[in-house]
Structures are given as C-alpha cells and as structure tokens.
C-alpha cells in the first residue's frame, strides 16, 4: 500500500491550515486505498537554509538532526498532498525553506495540492508546480482551491463547501494512482 503524506506548510500561530489539513487527512483515511499521515512542517523547527552544499549532493545525509528527521519523514513517503496557503501572491516562505533543505527525497514522486487563501491559492499552487518540476515529480491535475469567502467562517473556522469533498477525492485518487505507478 502506498504511503501518502498530507503536508501542512503553514507555520503561523492560529493557522487555518491545521483545520484544512485535518479535514484532508480525515477524508483520506476513510478511503482505505493508501496509508495517509500528516506531516506538519512546523513540528520540525527547521533552520534557514544556509549550507553552501546543495541538498542534491548530500546523499540524504544532513548535519542538523532536524533536517535529517525531515528528510527521513519525506523520503519514507510515496506521494504528497501539499496543504498550502498563499502569502502575498506566492508560496509561504517557511514552507519553501523546508522544501529547499531536500532534493532527492522528492525525485519522481506524486504530488497534489490543496490551497487556501482569499482566491484559493491559485498562484501558490502554480508556483509549487514549477518548483517541483525540478525533481520530475508527477503533479496531478486535480486541485482543491479553498477560499475565505466560501469555505471559512469569520476568518477562523474552516467550513468547506459541500462540493469540496468531491474535489479532494479527485486529488487523492490521482495522487494514489500516480504513486502506485512508481
């Protein structure tokens, strides 16, 4: 059975992403077609990338125990669903920093996106597509674009519109299928 990580990329206090990722994980675990787990970037407390040696040249061996734990966690998965906010029309800096620590851990693996923002994180997910292309990742076509206007109450409570469950199912189906082909 393939292993799929629901990767929560926001590290902000009071982040809406926790609710979004919990919803995605809850929906995923009812399916029985893969082993799903939550991977919370915040829990790794990653430093800024400052090492002059590119991650692709490190053979998945890192001097910082936090980065090594991050590497081991990501490497053990066959595919990912990035739960990403959009900050100032782009990917969140802390999430990008986390991804920049690694490289071969992602090679050729499957990935899908659940974005959330005022307009559904469309620009952030498009930027992620460009970023992960470097590693030959198999980016699935379906995406979920949650908006503050249709899927969030009072800017604090995640309450997805009913059709979002079907959108997420399509993302999960595609990620599992692509991960299974590997």
Rg (C-alpha, Å): 15 Å
CATH class: Alpha Beta
The largest pleated sheet is described as: 5 strands, parallel
- Portion of residues in beta strands equals 15-25%
Under CATH, the homologous superfamily reads Flavodoxin domain
| Percent range of helical residues | 25-40%
Overall morphology: globular
Number of helices: 6
Characterise this structure.
This protein is α/β, with parallel strands linked by helices and 182 residues long. The chain has one domain: Rossmann fold. It has 6 helices and 7 strands; from the N terminus they run E-H-E-H-E-H-E-H-E-H-E-E-H. The protein has helices spanning 17-29, 65-75, 93-100, 122-133, 148-151, 164-180, and strands at 3-8, 35-40, 79-85, 110-117, 138-147, 152-153, 157-158. The strands form 2 sheets. Strands 2-1-3-4-5 form a 5-stranded parallel beta sheet, with helices on both faces. Strand 4 (110-117), helix 4 and strand 5 (138-147) form a beta-alpha-beta unit. The longest helix has 17 residues, at 164-180.
């Amino acid at each position: 059975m393939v292993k799929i990580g629901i990767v929560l990329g926001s590290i902000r206090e009071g982040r809406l992403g926790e609710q979004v990722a919990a919803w995605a994980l809850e929906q995923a675990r009812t399916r029985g077609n893969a082993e799903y787990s939550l991977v919370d970037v915040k829990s790794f407390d990653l430093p800024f990338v400052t090492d002059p040696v590119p991650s692709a040249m490190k053979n998945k061996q890192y001097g910082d125990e936090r980065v090594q734990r991050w590497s081991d966690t990501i490497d053990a998965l066959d595919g990912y669903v990035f739960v990403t906010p959009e900050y100032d029309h782009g990917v969140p800096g802390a999430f990008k920093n986390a991804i920049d620590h690694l490289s071969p851990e992602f090679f050729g693996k499957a990935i899908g996106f659940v974005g959330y923002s005022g307009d559904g994180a469309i620009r952030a997910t498009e930027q992620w597509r460009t970023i992960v292309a470097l590693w030959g990742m198999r980016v699935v076509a379906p995406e979920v674009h949650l908006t503050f206007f249709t899927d969030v109450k009072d800017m604090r409570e995640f309450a997805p519109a009913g059709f979002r469950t079907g959108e997420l199912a399509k993302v999960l189906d595609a990620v599992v299928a692509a991960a299974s082909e590997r």
